[in-house]
Amino acid sequence: MSPNQPTDDLRVRRTRKLLRDALVSLMAERGFEAITVQDLAERAMINRATFYRHYRDKADLLERCMDDVFAELEASLAPPPPVLGRPAWPLLADNLTLLFEHVAAYAPLYHLLLGERGAGAFVARARAALAAAGARRWEAMRPALADPLAPPEMTLGFIASAVLGALTWWLEAGQPTDPATAARHLLTLITVGPYRALGMPVA
Amino acid sequence: MSPNQPTDDLRVRRTRKLLRDALVSLMAERGFEAITVQDLAERAMINRATFYRHYRDKADLLERCMDDVFAELEASLAPPPPVLGRPAWPLLADNLTLLFEHVAAYAPLYHLLLGERGAGAFVARARAALAAAGARRWEAMRPALADPLAPPEMTLGFIASAVLGALTWWLEAGQPTDPATAARHLLTLITVGPYRALGMPVA
Amino acid sequence: MSPNQPTDDLRVRRTRKLLRDALVSLMAERGFEAITVQDLAERAMINRATFYRHYRDKADLLERCMDDVFAELEASLAPPPPVLGRPAWPLLADNLTLLFEHVAAYAPLYHLLLGERGAGAFVARARAALAAAGARRWEAMRPALADPLAPPEMTLGFIASAVLGALTWWLEAGQPTDPATAARHLLTLITVGPYRALGMPVA
Amino acid sequence: MSPNQPTDDLRVRRTRKLLRDALVSLMAERGFEAITVQDLAERAMINRATFYRHYRDKADLLERCMDDVFAELEASLAPPPPVLGRPAWPLLADNLTLLFEHVAAYAPLYHLLLGERGAGAFVARARAALAAAGARRWEAMRPALADPLAPPEMTLGFIASAVLGALTWWLEAGQPTDPATAARHLLTLITVGPYRALGMPVA
DNA sequence: ACGTAAGCGAGACGGTACGTCGCGTCTTACC
DNA sequence: GGTAAGACGCGACGTACCGTCTCGCTTACGT
Fold first, then answer.
1. Which SS3 state, helix, strand or coil, does residue B170 take?
2. pLDDT per position as a tens digit, D160-174
3. CA 20 to 30 Å from D177, out of A107, A109, A154, D74?
4. Which residues on chain A are in Cβ contact (under 8 Å) with B151?
């Protein structure tokens, strides 16, 4: 198998596109786990053996789809560290908006992957990626920060999951607000905290 | 099959216990997806057909394990709403401590279910349960609260996922702090917000 | 198991009778092979474990039914050898009539056992019994007989199967003639031969 | 499954041959009923699942074996009716010889199928085929024949079973005579009748 | 433009696991 | 002691997918 080596052979590109489309359309119908390679081949109107010429298994196919999507996201985000000692707010706000816009662009896919019948591995991966990105940015700002009020790793895990949770709600609610507004809400949750965001008095 | 109807037949109770233990021990070794019914039967030293006399499939077994665990958790938590108009802090703090203690009591199981190779469905279920519990408590306090700064449903999804994220970190880090301390940190994250908890200036 | 030891316990006799009736009624519906012990127990309205207290398996049950039936047949037939050197005709005719009458008495059972979905082992056993009975009678008359025109064992196998064939036809055709007439026809087939019985010229 | 459609795929033909050989060899050891599909697969050195790609179950396999064998027999026999009004003797004699030769060619198979542990369904099918063949030939000659001495259908059932009985004896006795001689004896039994063939006086 | 190497369809095959069924044994409790 | 109820070990069933493997066809590419 020559997995992701890009080819300009039309037949190959056609086959891969058909398979990725088939994956999304089938995940919408029955979730990732319930899909079989035979299903994918039928939907893509290719032979089952041909599938194996391009992907190791269905998880491999999913992963390559995500590779593409994540690469695109990473490319669109602003570079990590701003000037030291300055609040990272505006940058974070921008990046959150970009995140929501990216997710909106691939809404069907993300909706499926994050939802009930999504792929558990995907969520774990996305969570790890978010935590890592957060860690990188936090490390860069560290010298200029006050003492943390909770273990930073815990906070990073907290944020990463929380962002995914907010995204999940946003997708499952049918994107009730535009990406910029949703990003602003999320930023509020991160900065003032969810408790106060609910209207609770905080001491 | 009469799934979870409690029986006083000793053989039945023995068989079910053996199977639940086998599930946990096998999940620790290779994760949920990689387990087969034959594996479970072998580990539990029962016949494979006997497995099907008690559970529909391995997902059913997992679910019933979780039913028991969740029921115990729910029983240990304090009842939802305190007196209106008073800060719910102390209660929330207590409940978070109880939550961490409960998770610590079943640490191996929760560690597996929340981790990389855990069962996606479990996380979704836990998240929904947390969000629902949060919603119930929030509804009760609603009249006494200020205007929310973000859509409350979004906030609830945010919190539910965030709590799981914090728990996940705590378990994967090997429970570096005792439950009460971890609960206090989590409470901080929820109240002052993760951003400030990292030491960031918030303007 | 205490197989065929006759009991005067009413419950036991009732159970056995119910099982034998169930066997016949189920064989009529789906043939012997397709019956399960569970079927027998349900139809007889007894517990499955009780079946095993009386019979080893369904073949055992069938065999014991046949034992009874064959014992009754054997008792009704005339004793083997007549006076030497005299044609055995009249005796044979009588015995064939008794045979048809016996079969008519148990028509449903014989019909099933000899038919398409019958029990192969039963046919083999009946054939062997007929051949043995024929052999006994032939041995007794042997000194008084002319030289055989074909190997006697072949002839005995021929007759045994042929009689079963005639009985099978008679039962499947719905007993179109009374037992005495059918016996006379069968005697004709045995004595003048089936070829001439069809009206064929024999040289 | 496309059961017996002839294929030119070598692998397919090899698999089917292996299975048919395995069937015969296993039937010789324990009879048809006691064989499992796993046994067949092991003996044929194929995977069990592959069995099901070719045959519905073991009965299907047996049936297709018989199809082949019967088709060959039918092809070798002379066409039904000669000139009307002439004794059918010579033709019948020829066909009986061909029958014995055919059976001799597949002696192991026929021996098993007709014997104690054979397949009841096979005997029923063979009996019906013989009766049908006899009926066809008799219908063709009917106008030229004298009145029958017994119901012709009874006679045909009688002959069909009788021929199988003679064949069974011949095979179980280890083919003590050559096919031509055995056929001559069988012809005698059919024409002069088994009674006289035993040396009995017939009036 | 066209020959040729590749991608591809078709499908047999060895495997592994599935969920079901029926067997015969057994334990427990009832009568 | 016969019976009902039913758990259990066992083993076979027929099915579903897996990933691998020919075997020809056809199709897009490279010279």
1. helix
2. 999 999 999 999 999
3. D74
4. 176-177, 185
Residue range D33-50, pLDDT digits in tens: 899 999 999 999 999 999
3-state secondary structure of A75: helix
Residues A174-198 have pLDDT tens digits of 999 999 999 999 999 999 999 999 9
CA distance C202 to C195: 8
Specify the DSSP element, H or E, that contains D173.
Answer: none
| Conformation bin of residue D11: beta by default, left when phi > 0, alpha when psi is -120 to 50 | alpha
Residue C176 CA to its chain's centroid (Å):
19
pLDDT at A73: 85
Structure confidence at residue C192 (pLDDT)? 93
pLDDT digits (tens, 9 = 90+) for C30-60: 888 889 999 999 999 999 999 999 999 999 9
**C-alpha–C-alpha distance, residues C69 and C122, integer Å:** 12
CB within 8 Å: C199 and D148: yes
One-letter amino acid for residue B168 of the chain: T
Nearest in space to C158 (alpha carbons), one of B193, B27, D193, B17: D193
- Answer whether C202 touches D (CB < 8 Å): yes
Find chain B residues with C-beta within 8 A of A177's C-beta. 151
**Residues spanned by CATH 1.10.10.60 within chain C?**
10-60
- Report d(CA A61, CA A54) in Å as an integer: 8
State the pLDDT at residue C89.
60
State the average pLDDT over residues B79-97: 66
The pLDDT, as a whole number, for residue B47 is: 95
Tell me C78's DSSP state: P
Burial class (CB in 10 A: 0-12, 13-18, 19+), B5: exposed
Q: How far apart are CA A170 and CA D74, in angstroms?
A: 76
Angstrom distance (rounded) from CA B19 to CA B22: 5
The CATH fold assigned to C10-60 is Arc Repressor Mutant, subunit A (1.10.10)
Taking the CA of residue B4 and the nearest CA in chain A, the distance in Å comes to 24
Residue B2: predicted pLDDT = 37
Q: How far is the CA of A79 from the C1' of E3 (A)?
A: 52
Pick among B96, B103, B195, B196 to test the A interface (most A CBs inside 10 A) = B195
Residue B163 in tokens = 């709590």
Asked whether strand F has any atom less than 7 Å from the CB of A177, the reply is no
Q: What distances in angstroms separate CA A95 from CA A98, A124, A183, B79, one per listed residue?
A: 5, 21, 9, 40
Q: Best of D149, D177, D178, D181 to disrupt the C interface by mutation (most C CBs within 10 Å)?
A: D149
Over pLDDT 90: what percentage of chain A? Answer: 53
DSSP letter, residue A201: -
Q: Does D203 touch chain C (CB under 8 A)?
A: yes
Q: Give the chain B residue nearest A126 (alpha carbons).
A: B116
- What band does D3 get if pLDDT is binned at 50, 70 and 90? very low
| C176 interfacial to chain D (CB closer than 8 Å) | yes
**Sign of the alpha-carbon torsion through D69, D71, D75, D79:** positive
Does nucleic acid strand F have an atom less than 7 angstroms from the CB of B53?
A: yes
Q: What band does D92 get if pLDDT is binned at 50, 70 and 90?
A: confident
Phi, psi of C116 (to 5 degrees): -50, -50
* pLDDT score of B3: 44
CA distance B94 to chain A (A): 16
Which of C169, C77, C157 is closest to C124 using CA atoms? C157
Burial of residue C5 (CB within 10 Å: 0-12, 13-18, 19+) is exposed
